[in-house]
Amino acid sequence: MKPLHLAAIDLGATSGRVILGTWSKNKLTLKEVHRFPNAFQSINGHDYWNIAGLWNEILTGLHAAVAALPKGATLASVGVDTWGVDYVLVNDTGRLVYPVHAYRDNRTQPGLKRLAHTRAALERIYAATGIPNVFYNASLQLEETVTSCPAITDLATRCLFLPDYFNFLLSGRMANELTIASTTQLLDVHSTDWSRAALDHFRVPAQWLSKPVLAGTQLGKVRALPELSALAATRVIAVPGHDTACAYDAMPANPDGTDLFLSSGTWSLVGFESDTPVLGAAALAARISNERIGDGRYRPLTNVIGLWLLEGILKDFTSRPTNDVAWSALITAAEKLPAPAALLDVTDSALTNPKSMKAAIDAQLKKRRVPAPKNLAGYTRLICDSLGRGHADAKAAFERMSGRTFKRILIVGGGSKNRLLCQATADAAGVPVVSFALEGTAVGNLASQLISLRVVKNLATFRALFGETLKQTIYTPRPS
Ligand code: LFR
Q: Which of 82, 113, 148, 374 could pair with 11 in a Cys bridge, judged by C-beta atoms 3.0 to 4.6 Å apart?
């Protein structure tokens, strides 16, 4: 069989990339053809994504992918994954009728508090959707939109989550995909359709949404538009639209279910794969999110604040590293420091979207009468050790609730390259951390395309084949 070429569009909250994947002789090779920074921008107190900018970066990336193909070859397919929860409201022709807010916008704070203080509603919504009350949920965002702008229910006819919207721009077809739908707190945890109870509670018009398609659904060929003419033969595949679902799919986990997964980037997403959701009072208290795998199964996980802390603190230091050598020097300096006297409370909501991360961390430490670190290496150490503890706490909670024992933690994403974070996690959790040097989200995206195109049988086969080719680093826990 001839080599098969596919493109993964992978958008993160702080950077995006387009990756050309080539499948040949049962091996997947990746080439990053375009990478670009991403950030939300504020106007008059609210935070918005630059959707047109993202679309233009996608086009640039797709053209770079086509240019990187061997002579005469074409792109067989393309898939899009993005961060969760954010959405676009459009009319029947697909025109934007509302600005696209970023999930860190603090407009959801009143709704968040209201639900948090209404025990019965909180429990009802958790029982219906399996998703805890988190400030970024699409449910709270849509509730705020409908309340602050009632005319929107006439203007908009469809709600497309970000991967759905870019799939629409590429294929012309509007569809909601299951994994991204599962991040919203509006999906029924016991089926693969929307929850009437949740839609009614948050006053989201049911007609805005269609029954989600499973990952791997082919949406059609790329539209015949001048800017897409180089992709005339390319199919658009609804891959797992949620980047975390893709990252989990990429991990060559042991099929016996004893691996815990950690997708470490802006957020630290610690969880596992399961045939059943984890529900009930203890799960709600532990803030377990029952997100979905592309085939309909579950990924119970908790969201630990993640490297957002480090990304934030770097902005406060002019001495921040700008290349790999400087990064390595920073990590080495942080490793040499004594362990911090106390760790951060990573659940503190003041760390969610502060103007200055350093000021927010210092304020938390001051309240607890803990001295602030002296320099960037000190903050780096404090952050990595605190995240390591957060990951270990999540593991303990999952073991209590699922009755399973996790023997390893598999890590992918930016944090997998941070040896301080990997070691801190292994030490706190007491199990080895296996780090894979791979673009997990892009790999999961490509895996779904390969399965949809029937060149790979299923995810288990993909993981087995791909796992063999992967370089891994093992961090063994050190005695405390
Ligand atoms: C990671 C991620 C998380 C989600 C957060 C907000 O990029 O998708 O899974 O909880 O972003 O959408």
A: 82
